[in-house]
Amino acid sequence: MRYNVFGRTGHTVSRLGFGAMNLPGVPFEQARDALNYALDNGITYIDTAAGYRNSEEIIGKSISHRRQEYFLATKTKMRDYESAKAEIDRSLQRMKTDYIDLLQIHYVNQVQEFKAAMSENGAYRAALEAKKEGKVRFIGITGHRPDLLAKWIAPGQFDQVLFHLSLVQPFALRELIPAATKLNMGK
């Protein structure tokens, strides 16, 4: 397995991560075995989201006893403070952990969504508060609009950005990847 330092977080993670979005689609035993197999074979980055059905619960039941072995990323799609704060706490309970390595404000694709999340009573405030309390180590943002994400990360308030990149949609190559690289962000 190959490893990289994950941007300015200073944490070393496997280049290959385990995306847990589809864990709820298989029997629990298969999901548990897959997660443990990943850890046994050097994968140290586990990615999930509160919105991925019961993926967080599966992670908690399957590998919470191995928590020191992986970097855990989850997401909130909530835009307001109260809802995001409650979701962060639920995620911690579901995954049976005291902290989330990376909390991402998820699927932000419209200017009004970003403004809501970043407002005084927005999800970003809940993430910052959770970070102060030691519940969250780093804060990221995800979306499918590389042009907007490049602008939104420019002030440096996020540690990571998650986006799609493919041969048929290489848009992130123009602005977003250079901006994230300049800021030494996890990507």
Explain how this protein is built.
The protein is of the alpha/beta class and 187 residues long. It is 37% helix and 18% strand. The chain is built from seven helices and eight strands. Helix 3 crosses helix 5 (123-132). The two termini are 18 Å apart.
Kindly summarize this structure in a few lines.
With 187 residues, this protein is an alpha/beta fold. The chain has seven helices and eight strands. The chain starts with a strand and ends in a 5-residue tail after the last helix.
Helix and strand arrangement:
Elements: E1 3-5, E2 12-14, E3 18-19, H1 28-40, E4 45-47, H2 55-63, E5 71-76, H3 81-94, E6 100-105, H4 111-118, H5 123-132, E7 136-142, H6 146-153, E8 160-162, H7 176-182
Parallel strand pairs: 3-4, 4-5, 5-6, 6-7, 7-8
Antiparallel strand pairs: 1-2
Helix pairs in contact: 1-2, 3-5, 6-7
Features:
about 190 residues, alpha/beta, 6-stranded parallel beta sheet, two-stranded antiparallel sheet, 7 helices, 8 strands, globular
What overall form do the CA principal axes indicate? Answer: globular
SS summary, helix count: 7
Strand count, sense and closure of the main sheet? 6 strands, parallel
Query: How much strand?
Result: 15-25%
Low-confidence stretches: none
Q: Which structural category do the helix and sheet elements fall into? A: alpha/beta
Rg, rounded, reads: 16 Å
Q: Kindly state the mean pLDDT as a whole number?
A: 97
Report strand order across the widest sheet: 3-4-5-6-7-8
Listing every helix as H and every strand as E from the N terminus to the C terminus, the arrangement reads: EEEHEHEHEHHEHEH
Task: State the helical fraction.
Answer: 25-40%
> Based on DSSP secondary structure assignment, what is the total number of beta strands?
8
| Terminal Cα span | 18 Å
